[in-house]
Design a protein that fits this description.
This is DUF1616 domain-containing protein. The chain is an alpha+beta fold and about 450 residues long. The protein is about 40% helix and about 20% strand.
C-alpha cells in the first residue's frame, strides 16, 4: 500500500507543476532588477557603498550569467524515469542549484570580455560599464524567453524556489554532521566576503589622483594662446599681458587666489619684492579656466622676476613660492636691462609653462661664460694682464684679429703694433710640426 500511495503523490505533484503558469516570471524579474540597477547606479549614483553593493553585486556576478544559462538551457529538469530534456550544451539540463553555480561562473567569464570590449567603443566609466552589462543581460534574457516558447509548456524551465530553498538549507546544514555544517557555513561566508570585496572595488567611486595644473600663456601672431613668446624686455611703466591657465583636477569645485609678486635683482641678488596683483579664480571640477592678467612692474630699470602664485586656502601675509600651492615665474628686463644687471643683459629663459618651475634663482655671475666684470674673470689681483681675457677662455687661443687693435679683452693691449696674433700662432704650429718630423726621422 505504501508504494502506490507514493506513486500517486508523485503523479499529483507532477500534475500540479504542469498546471502552474509557464510564463517567464524569472526572466521578467531579472529584467526588472536590471532596470532598477541602472536607475540606481547611473541615474541616482548614491555615494553610500552599502547601497551600491546591494544593487551592484547581483548585477555584476549573477544577472548576466543567469540570463546566459537560461539562454543555453531553456528546458527544465526532467522528472525521474522520464526522457531527459535536451539543452543547448548537451542532453542533461542543470538543476536549480547547478543553474545558480553556473550563473556565478558565467558572470565571471562575461565581465572580462566586456572589460576588453568597452574601451574600444566608449570610455571605461560607470555609465558605459553598467549600460553594457544591462544590454547583454536583457538581450540574453529575451533570447532565453524565445527559446522557451519553442518548447512544450510542460518542458519549459520554471524555478521552484520554496522546494529548492529547503533542499539548499539541508545541504548547508545537515543534521547528522555538525562538522560538515560548520565547514559549509565557513565556505559560504568566505564566498560572500570575496564577492562583496570584489564588487565594492568595482563599484565604489574611484577618486584617482588630485592635482591642479597652472600655466602661463601668450598670444602668437595668429591670436592663439601658446606656451611661448613671453616678453623678455619692457619699458618702464609698460604692462605685461599674459594669460594664466588653471586646470582643476581636485574632484571638487575650487576657488583659487592668484597673487603676482615682483622681485627685483641687482648683481644676482634679490633686493626687494612686492605684490602687484591679486585676484580670484573659480574653477569647476574637471575644467580649465583662462584668465587674462596684465600686470605693470613698478621697477624703473634692471632685471625683475614676476612670480605667479596660486593658493587654495587663505593667502599668507608674505606670499612666496615656498608657501604657494602652485607657482610659476617669468624673467623680464626693464629699460635697457644693464643697470645692476649681469654683464650681457641676457635674461634667463622664462620658467612659465611648467607648474613648480619657479624655484630657479637668478643666474650666477661666476657661471657666465661671457661675463664682463671689467675683464677680471678669474684673476684675483684685478690687473688687466696680457692674455688674461675674461678668465674663462684662457685655455683657448685668441681668435684672429683684423689688425684694428680691438682685442676685446683677449689681446694684451698692444693691438696698435700691427702684429697679427694669428700669424704668430701659425709660426708656432709650423715649428711644432717640423719638430715632430725631426723626431720621427731620428726614430724617437
Amino acid at each position: 500500500m505504501k508504494e502506490p500511495f507514493e506513486r500517486s503523490r508523485s503523479s499529483h505533484a507532477q500534475s500540479t507543476d504542469r498546471s502552474r503558469p509557464t510564463g517567464p516570471a524569472d526572466l521578467a524579474t531579472l529584467c526588472g532588477f536590471v532596470l532598477v540597477a541602472v536607475v540606481v547606479l547611473v541615474g541616482w549614483n548614491p555615494a553610500s557603498p552599502p547601497i551600491r553593493a546591494i544593487v551592484g553585486l547581483p548585477l555584476l556576478f549573477l544577472a548576466p550569467g543567469y540570463a546566459f544559462v537560461s539562454l543555453c538551457f531553456p528546458a527544465g529538469s526532467s522528472p525521474a524515469g522520464a526522457e531527459t530534456a535536451r539543452g543547448a550544451l548537451g542532453t542533461r539540463t542543470p538543476s536549480d542549484g547547478e543553474r545558480l553555480a553556473l550563473s556565478f561562473g558565467s558572470s565571471l567569464a562575461i565581465l572580462p570580455i566586456l572589460g576588453l570590449a568597452i574601451p574600444s567603443v566608449a570610455s571605461f566609466e560607470l555609465a558605459p560599464v553598467v549600460g553594457s552589462i544591462a544590454v547583454v543581460t536583457v538581450l540574453a534574457a529575451v533570447g532565453a524567453w524565445l527559446r522557451r516558447l519553442r518548447l512544450a509548456p510542460a518542458r519549459r524551465y520554471r524555478p521552484a524556489f520554496a522546494r529548492r530553498w529547503s533542499t539548499l538549507r539541508w545541504a548547508l546544514l545537515p543534521t547528522g554532521s555538525p562538522l560538515l555544517a560548520a565547514t559549509n557555513v565557513v565556505l559560504a561566508v568566505s564566498v560572500v566576503l570575496a564577492i562583496t570585496t570584489g564588487g565594492y572595488a568595482l563599484l565604489s567611486p574611484q577618486d584617482g589622483e588630485r592635482y591642479t595644473g597652472m600655466q602661463l600663456l601668450a598670444e602668437d601672431e595668429g591670436g592663439e594662446l601658446v606656451a611661448a613668446g613671453y616678453p623678455t624686455e619692457i619699458e618702464p611703466g609698460e604692462s605685461v599681458p599674459l594669460t594664466v591657465a588653471v586646470d582643476n583636477q581636485e574632484h571638487r569645485d575650487v576657488t583659487y587666489d592668484l597673487v603676482v609678486r615682483q622681485e627685483r635683482y641687482v648683481d644676482g641678488d634679490r633686493r626687494d619684492s612686492e605684490v602687484i596683483h591679486e585676484s580670484n579664480l573659480s574653477v569647476p571640477d574637471g575644467e580649465t579656466v583662462h584668465r587674462d592678467v596684465a600686470v605693470t612692474p613698478t621697477a624703473d630699470s634692471g632685471q625683475i622676476r614676476l612670480v605667479y602664485l596660486l593658493y587654495t586656502d587663505d593667502v599668507p601675509s608674505d606670499p612666496a613660492p615656498e608657501n604657494a600651492y602652485r607657482y610659476t615665474h617669468l624673467w623680464i628686463d626693464v629699460g635697457d636691462g644693464s643697470a645692476g644687471d649681469d654683464s650681457d643683459g641676457t635674461a634667463p629663459p622664462p620658467g612659465a609653462g611648467e607648474p613648480g618651475a619657479g624655484d630657479e634663482g637668478p643666474p650666477d655671475d661666476d657661471n657666465e661664460s661671457d661675463g664682463g666684470d671689467g675683464g677680471l674673470g678669474d684673476d684675483d689681483d684685478g690687473d688687466d694682464e696680457p692674455g688674461d681675457g675674461d678668465g674663462n677662455e684662457s685655455d683657448s687661443p685668441a681668435p684672429p684679429d683684423d689688425g684694428s687693435g680691438g682685442g676685446g679683452g683677449n689681446e694684451s693691449g698692444t693691438g696698435d703694433s700691427g702684429t697679427d696674433p694669428g700669424a704668430a700662432d701659425e709660426d708656432e704650429d709650423e715649428a711644432g710640426f717640423d719638430g715632430d718630423i725631426g723626431l720621427r726621422l731620428l726614430g724617437r
